[in-house]
Amino acid sequence: MYSERASALPHVVAWWSVTEPGAPPKRILPDGCLDIIWRDGTVFVAGPDTTAQLGRPAPGSRLFALRFGSGTGPGVLGLPASELVDRQVPLDALWPSSVVRRLSAADDPLAALTAEAARRWAAPDRPMVALAAAARAGDPVSVIAARCGLSPRQLQRRSNAAFGYGPKTLERIFRMQRAVALARRGSPFAAVSASAGYADQAHLAREVRAMAGVPLSSLVSS
User: How far apart are the C-alpha atoms of 117 and 74, rounded to whole Å?
Assistant: First the structure.
């Protein structure tokens, strides 16, 4: 069982899940975000991914989490996202142990995570919020840089800090997210490749397999 809703914090999604007996491993696709996750009393950070991860929580395991989009996570955690790429890090490596112990023992983990994140909240970097929106829309990187008023080098540096990788990688990730969503809604793969911004269907197949680790057809059927 999985549910999510918009958090009270801007650009943040609150989500929770319970692993049912016999549930297969869940393939977690890159999404340009990082998460703070409470899992059965253990709290950790899942950094921004470049390739899919397989989640294998034990049956009955409960997870409560905040997913930070648009580059908002690093301000709350106190370090650049580039230090967390493709990593899971115990939260007490980043925050005081006393704070993490309180979160671990919380009766309402999601409320506790939200309150602590709100206390540490930093105003989002506006150009990075704009970068996320433009990359999601499939705008070219050169257009994104001009719109943000940054040189390509400045955009690269700030994107690395906010998202863990540069704007081209962020754009690839959001393009794959668009493609998977279209395919799951029943669009033919040829139409998906054109609508999502791929050169052709072969390009779509290569990109999805490179980042998801499986063909698009496997993602649609899962």
Answer: 11
